[in-house]
Design brief:
two-stranded antiparallel sheet; elongated; 14 helices; ZSWM6 protein; mainly alpha
Length: 300
C-alpha cells in the first residue's frame, strides 16, 4: 500500500497516467487475487507490478516478487528505462524491504517468522551474481538507509524494540566489501547495536526524577528469538574481524563496537577465540593487532 502511494504521488506523473492507474487499481481491487501480468505487453504500470510487493509484510511480499520473476520467466535483461530491468527493480525493492525499521512483534511464532522471512529473502538474493548495475543499487540503498529517518532500520535513531539488522547487514557488508569497503564497514558498524539490551535512558531532561522513571523501562520485552539474534550479532562481528585482518584502524573500530554492543560473555569469548584463530591462520608471523584484540576480548 505504501509503495503504491509513492507511485501515485510521483510529482512527474501526468494526470492521464494517474487516471489510468486509478482505473486499473479499481479493477484489480474488485477481484480476490491480484492477477499476474504478462511482461511482454500492457502499459507501464502492469510491467512495474512484477517487481513490486503487493502487501504490507515487506519481506514476505518481496519473496513473492522474486517468485514472479522465476515462474513467469520474465527476461531479466528487458529494460523498462535506461539501466533498469525487472531484476534490478526486484533487487532494489528487496533491499528496501529488508532495511525498513519495524517493531518486533509479540509472540514466539511471529518473531520466528520475522527471522525466517528475512533469511529466505537474503538466500534468494545470494543466488544473484552482482554486476556493476546491481552494485550501484546496493551502494545507493546502503547510503539511503544510513541517512534515512525513522523508516530505516539502519538510521541513526531507532526504536528500542526495532528488529535488529545484523543478518541483513552481514549480507550488505560481504556484498559491498570488494567495491566500497568504507561504506561496507559503516553499514555493518551501525547495525551492531542491540538496543533492547541497553539500560541507559535516552537523552533529554534528566533533572526531574519522575522523568527518568517514565522513560526507563523496568523490564525487557519478551524476545523469544533473542539467543538467535545475539548469535547473528556475533556472526556480524566475526565477519568484520576476519575482513579487517592487517588493518589496524579498522580492527580497533570493530573492537570498540564489540565492547560497546555485545552483552553476552559467551559470545565475547567466542569472538576472542575467532580473533586468535584469524591472527594465527597463516604460517607466517601472526597479526599482532588481532592478537591484542583477542586478549582484550578474552579479558573482557
Amino acid at each position: 500500500g505504501a509503495l503504491w502511494m509513492c507511485i501515485v504521488l510521483n510529482p512527474h506523473c501526468k494526470l492521464e497516467q494517474k487516471a489510468s492507474w486509478l482505473k486499473q487499481l479499481k479493477k484489480w481491487n474488485s477481484v480476490d487475487v491480484c492477477p499476474w501480468e504478462d511482461g511482454n505487453h500492457g502499459n507501464e504500470l502492469p510491467n512495474l507490478t512484477n517487481a513490486l510487493p503487493q502487501g504490507a509484510n515487506a519481506n514476505q511480499d518481496n519473496m513473492g516478487q522474486f517468485k514472479s520473476l522465476e515462474y513467469q520467466h520474465l527476461p531479466a535483461h528487458k529494460f523498462l528505462e535506461e539501466g533498469e530491468s525487472y531484476l534490478t527493480l526486484a533487487v532494489e525493492v528487496a533491499l528496501i524491504g529488508l532495511g525498513q525499521q519495524r517493531i518486533m512483534p509479540d509472540g514466539l511464532y511471529a518473531q520466528e517468522k520475522v527471522c525466517r522471512n528475512e533469511e529466505q529473502l537474503i538466500s534468494k538474493l545470494q543466488e544473484i551474481e552482482l554486476d556493476d548495475t546491481l552494485v550501484k543499487i546496493f551502494r545507493k540503498q546502503a547510503v539511503f538507509l544510513l541517512e534515512a529517518g525513522p523508516y530505516s532500520g539502519l538510521g541513526e535513531v531507532i526504536h528500542r524494540e526495532s528488529v535488529p539488522m545484523h543478518t541483513f547487514a552481514k549480507y550488505l557488508f560481504t556484498s559491498l566489501l570488494p567495491h566500497d569497503a568504507e561504506l561496507a564497514y559503516k553499514t555493518a558498524l551501525r547495525a551492531m547495536r542491540l538496543l533492547v539490551l541497553e539500560s541507559t535512558p535516552p537523552s533529554g531532561d534528566m533533572s526531574r526524577p519522575h522523568h527518568i522513571a517514565s522513560v526507563v523501562p523496568n523490564r525487557y520485552p519478551r524476545w523469544f528469538t533473542l539467543s538467535h539474534i545475539e548469535s547473528q550479532q556475533c556472526e556480524l562481528a566475526s565477519t568484520m574481524l576476519t575482513a579487517a585482518k592487517g588493518d589496524v584502524r579498522r580492527l580497533e573500530t570493530v573492537l570498540e563496537s564489540i565492547q560497546k554492543n555485545i552483552h553476552s560473555s559467551s559470545h565475547i569469548f567466542k569472538l576472542a577465540q575467532d580473533a586468535f584463530k584469524i591472527a594465527t591462520l597463516m604460517d607466517n608471523l601472526p597479526d599482532i593487532t588481532l592478537l591484542k584484540v583477542s586478549l582484550e576480548l578474552g579479558l573482557q
